[in-house]
Specification:
5 domains; 58 strands; cell adhesion; 8-stranded mixed beta sheet; CLSTN_C; 13 helices; about 10% helix; golgi apparatus; 8-stranded antiparallel beta sheet; single chain; Immunoglobulin-like; mainly beta; synapse
Length: about 950
């Protein structure tokens, strides 16, 4: 055997690798390409085992995932070449870069790898390269835009697509494309769409087309996007949908004035919008549609305390101090007096002034400075310049002293000069600066004085005064009661010395109406608001629907409404809820001008829009007229004359009925036509009048009586003259029925009449709607015992000498009870008197004929009854019924010529009294006896 001795093999050196590697791997591959390539060197080479590389170990890197996703393998042990690969496919979109460390180790000293050595750790950075696996996706499937016509735009709308790939090469959208042919639009690589030619809304209002997108790997979008471009007509800033004419049907409540109105700003950014809506009603009454009743009636309806004194009443014999003042027509019930600033002055009589004492009172009036067909006053000279215009100037007695006050206007100022005691106290002036005093419009003033407190209400709104103590040298007024309306008294030397209207100074120039003073406690605020309250005006539909930042304000007279906001959409919704309301059942028809003024504030004040004022009008249509029907009376009323001569007379309208109905058109479905339907409605009358027809009442012989307790209880006013009875005041129909049923007609004793005719009519809304005229003919039934007394017959004949009455109206008479004594119908005329005379002659002839027949009968019987056949006619009374013709016409008697025979009956002397009567019976078909 041969033994060979080998040298001792030892592993002296560690393997060596680079300190850092950069690697790339594709998403669809797992082999990592390293730079520099992976090689491990060992200085023990070429020794077997000790110089060979047995493997590589991968350690966690900064990401902590290297050992999980990557591994390193040895390709050649002798050269130390290695390979890094991923254990599973990598996703660039999930993680684009990876980092880990790698370490090489040799094979050691023998096959078992004993004493193997490891190299240092090297860092490996691996980047995952993207693969174009995703296609672009649009952010929205549909894009919409609107542009005004006639312009070219750099960008109308921008479309956008996204790609889910991780690399810039494949994730970026390289270009977009419009795939719909022949459209006037173009798109750039950023997705901006513009028009290539001006668009015309009339030619095509809406353009619809499709676009697609490509990434840089030329992948097309999964789904195309739709683009819709709406072409708007040329934008003109301003209000759109304005309707110049608005119609209102009375009784329809509230209606929107601008239901389709909206503001177009043409994309101008505004931060404040203010719109003012004005409803002009100055030509209607005193500024708006109010209750068309007298001021006194309105005060009572508003619950005011009674006791006011009218300082400017309608001219009448009892109130003649306003007869010289010119008046103007008014659509409401008030009487408007004109003052020309010079000689138009009303001097209130002392008896009226004496009822106005005290330092607690309420002065109310309607005032309008200038205007109203008033002739301007003569221009004052420089030395005679008027400083003030006095409305009311008054000096009244208070127990043992006198107080004085005057209400004046000067420019736009209202002043109250008050002197509580002209002998001791100091005068005080209360001053208000008011635009309402000088705007030439109607305004309601209520001045409540509870000295030293003074409260002024103008159109229902309270105003505080500026208190001024007047320390000037003012002579005391003369201690005498007096009151002027429209001026004050005095001359240059004696301030309050004269009482003649010709010496009046500080004369008022304008219109006044409803000037009243009520002494005592001041008027409550609620009453003042009610007196001024308009029944029509502007309103807002629903305040809860106001958007954030919106404000709405309405003035007290509801003639001006202001909207303010900062958002266009909210503002447009608010404008569409502005309404007109009129609570009157019978609104005053006519035209109410409308104005809309708009103010805009923009961020760029230089280019901010300026909108012109819009003008229109509201037309209140004619309301359905109510029909006031008077019934239940006459047309004839016949009563015995003695009933009219009683202390209470005879009621003229005991069963009067008043019905108010409203007719309106309804559609009949069966025939497709319109018909009128009347509905009974509850109304308030404001006046009724009873008037004798023909000659006026003779106050010495006849009169009309009214239950004054009912009138006073209801607060109505009554004027009772020989020409008419007028009952006025706003009250219900039932109240007027009660009052009119109490109207009675009374005659003086011995006032022989045969008939009297009366006419009854009622009205409401200040005579705007009137009832039918109910005519009643009153007939006085007289007994012939009195009628044909020689002394009475002459008086009766004298009455028949008056102008003739209608003889044909007897058909409607109310006949008296048939069991009464024989009567003569009160509709007797000259014809009846001729008939009466004829009947008297015929009866006298009949009497002689009866007596002659009676005597012949006695002669035939041979005078069997001597003395008993003597007829004592010393006190003969004949009662004749001249109603025979009248009764025949009424159907009461069916007397036919030749169908009956006359029977004469004479009372025996035994049965006859001193006042014997002859009864003539006439039988008809029914055998009934008629008494003559």
């Amino acid at each position: 055997m041969i033994l060979i001795n080998l040298p001792f093999l030892t592993n002296k050196h560690k393997p060596w690798i680079e300190t850092e590697y950069q690697g790339i791997v594709m998403e669809n591959d797992n082999t990592v390409l390293l730079n520099p390539p992976l090689f491990a060197l060992d200085k023990d080479a070429p020794l077997h085992y000790a110089g060979e590389i047995c493997g590589f170990r991968v350690h966690n890197g900064p990401s902590g995932s290297g050992t999980v996703q990557f591994e390193a393998v040895v390709l050649d042990r002798s050269t130390g070449e290695g390979l890094v690969r991923s254990k599973e496919p990598l996703d660039c979109e999930n993680q684009r870069e990876h980092s880990f460390t790698i370490q090489a180790y040799d094979c050691g000293e023998g096959p078992d790898g004993a004493n193997s050595k490891k190299s240092h750790k090297a860092t490996v950075h691996v980047r995952v390269n993207d693969v174009n696996e995703f296609s672009p996706v649009f952010v929205e499937r549909r894009y919409e835009a609107s542009v005004p016509e006639g312009r070219l735009f750099d960008r109308i709308v921008r479309v956008e697509a996204l790609d889910a790939d991780c690399s810039p090469q494949y994730s970026q959208i390289c270009f977009y494309d419009i795939i719909t042919p022949n459209v006037p639009f173009a798109i750039d690589n950023d997705g901006n769409i513009k028009n290539t030619e001006p668009l015309d809304s009339k030619h095509q209002r809406v353009h619809t087309f499709w676009v697609t997108a490509f990434d840089c790997g030329k992948n097309r979008a999964q789904a195309d996007a739709q683009v819709v471009v709406t072409v708007k007509p040329s934008c003109k800033p301003g209000w759109m949908g304005w309707t110049k004419r608005v119609e209102y049907t009375p009784g329809s409540g509230s209606i929107p004035l601008f239901p389709g109105l909206h503001l177009e700003t043409c994309e101008e950014t505004v931060w404040n919008i203010q719109a003012t809506v004005e409803l002009q009603t100055g030509h209607i009454g005193k500024g708006c549609d109010r209750d068309s009743y007298s001021d006194r009636s309105v005060r009572r309806l508003c619950g005011a305390v009674r006791g006011e004194v009218d300082l400017l009443p309608p001219p009448s014999p009892a109130a003649n101090w306003t007869s010289a003042l010119p008046t103007l027509p008014s659509s409401d019930s008030s009487l408007v007096f004109s003052f020309n600033g010079s000689n138009h002055v009303a001097v209130v009589p002392d008896p009226v002034v004496s009822a106005l004492s005290g330092d607690h009172f309420t002065l109310q009036l309607w005032m309008r400075r200038g205007g109203g067909n008033i002739q301007p006053a003569t221009a004052p000279t420089r030395g005679n310049r008027k400083e003030e215009e006095t409305i009311v100037c008054s000096t009244v007695r208070n127990d043992d002293s006198f107080s004085h006050y005057s209400l004046s206007v000067h420019g736009c100022r209202l002043s109250l000069f008050y002197w509580p005691d002209v002998a001791a106290a100091r005068p005080v002036k209360f001053l208000w600066k008011l635009e309402q005093v000088c705007d030439s419009e109607w305004h309601h003033l209520s001045l409540s004085v509870q000295f030293p407190s003074v409260t002024l209400y103008v159109d229902g709104v309270t105003f505080d005064p500026a208190l001024i103590h007047d320390n000037g040298a003012i002579p005391n007024p003369a201690p005498r009661q007096r009151m002027f309306i429209g001026a004050c008294w005095g001359n240059n030397s004696h301030f309050y010395s004269l009482f003649l209207a010709s010496d009046a100074v500080s004369s008022y120039h304008g219109l006044l109406s409803g000037v009243t003073v009520r002494p005592g406690s001041v008027e409550p605020h609620s009453v003042v608001e009610c007196l001024y309250a308009c029944r029509e005006g502007l309103d807002f539909g629903d305040l809860e629907t106001l958007g954030s930042g919106m404000k709405v304000h309405v003035n007290p007279s509801q003639s001006v409404l202001v909207l303010e906001g900062d958002d266009i959409e909210s503002f447009n919704r608010a404008v569409q809820q502005v309404t007109y309301r009129n609570s009157l059942r019978f609104a005053t028809p006519g035209v109410r001008p409308l104005k809309l003024t708009t103010s805009l504030r923009c961020f760029n004040e230089e280019s901010c829009l300026s909108l012109k004022q819009l003008e229109g009008y509201l037309v209140v249509l004619q309301p359905d007229a109510p029909q006031i029907s008077l019934s239940g009376v006459g047309p004839h009323l016949a009563r015995p004359a003695p009933e009219f001569e009683g202390p209470r007379g005879v009621s003229l309208f005991p069963e009067l009925r008043i019905v108010c109905s409203l007719s309106h058109a309804v559609n009949t479905a069966a025939q497709g036509m319109e018909a009128l339907m009347s509905d009974a409605v509850a109304h308030t009358l404001d006046g009724c009048e009873v008037q004798p027809l023909g000659e006026e009442l003779n106050p010495e012989r006849e009169e009309l009586l009214v239950d004054m307790d009912v009138v006073r209880e209801r607060g109505l006013e009554i004027i009772n003259t020989t020409a008419y009875i007028a009952i006025t005041g706003a009250e219900s129909i039932s109240v007027y029925e009660d009052v009119l049923r109490s109207v009675r007609y009374r005659l003086a004793k011995g006032s022989a009449r045969f008939e009297r005719r009366f006419r009854l009519s009622c009205s409401e809304m200040n005579g705007r709607y009137t009832s039918n005229e109910l005519t009643l003919e009153v007939n006085f039934l007289h007994s012939l015992d009195n009628l044909y007394h020689p002394s009475h017959l002459l008086a009766s004949q004298q009455q028949f000498l008056h102008p003739s009455h209608h003889a044909g109206e007897l058909s409607g008479h109310t006949l008296p009870n048939p069991h009464r004594n024989s009567v003569v119908p009160g509709a007797a005329t000259v014809i009846i008197m001729v008939c009466v005379g004829f009947l008297v002659v015929m009866v006298i002839l009949g009497v002689f004929r009866i007596r002659s027949i009676h005597r012949r009968g006695e002669g035939a019987r041979g005078g069997s009854k001597d003395g008993s056949g003597q007829w004592d006619d010393s006190a003969l009374t004949i009662i004749v019924n001249p109603m025979e013709t009248y009764e025949s016409r009424m159907g009461i008697s069916a007397d036919m010529e030749g169908e009956g025979e006359e029977e004469e009956v004479a009372e025996s002397p035994e049965d006859a009294s001193d006042d014997q009567r002859i009864i003539v019976k006439k039988e008809g078909r029914d055998g009934a006896a008629r008494r003559y």
